[in-house]
Amino acid sequence: MIPFLRPFDPLPPVASARADMGGLLAVGGDLSAERIIDAYRQGVFPWGTVEQQPLWYSPDPRMVLFPDEFRLSASLRKTLRSRRHEVRFDSDFPAVIEACAAMPRPGQDGTWITPDMMDAYIRLHQLGWAHSVEVYAEGDLTGGLYGIAIGRMFYGESMFSRRSDASKIAFAHLVRYLLAHDFTMIDCQMRTEHLVSLGGREIPRDDFIDRLRQLTRGEPRPGRWTADGLDTNW
After folding, report:
1. Which CATH number fits domain 4-59: 3.90.226.10, 3.40.50.410, 3.40.50.80, 3.30.70.3550?
2. Residue 105 pLDDT level (bands cut at 50, 70, 90)
3. pTM summary value
């Protein structure tokens, strides 16, 4: 049985997550900022809702990308050097999460980014935990991504593209930012071929959580991000 959480119930141990259900751990609880941040610290993330009840996941293995293993293809390098785009950080978080929710996904009927999820992550952005990277071309938002930063750990949530390579441009700038600020792991949650092409790989959940304990301890670093001073010599 999948546990049903009341608002103040703690999450169950990640070892009880259902492998046959993609790592589903629990249903219910709430989407308060405190619960979401606590879940991320434990290697758990919310992934959609059912009848307004959040679904909590902790898959094994876990897809991650180490920023120093990012694969910058020759074609993407050429695109980055073209300077036909503008990249900003945290300039329009709501627009990014709305675009991610609206983007069709192969094999998915609808989106897991429900209005309740949007509200929760916009609140986390207002508190300085959630961040976005936006790509603009000729003044239009053409791609981007968003996620959560805790300590030296970044948890990627979703990305979108309205033009070729726009999300990859956002991801390349995210990696540069993370390297410059001593982040050493990106949680990508689930394996996709797109993430593999960028350098992502799967690691055992126990390894992932051991790394989390090191990367998320100490003083938190919430606050607004900026691209000012970022090295963009590709």
Report:
1. 3.30.70.3550
2. low
3. 0.94
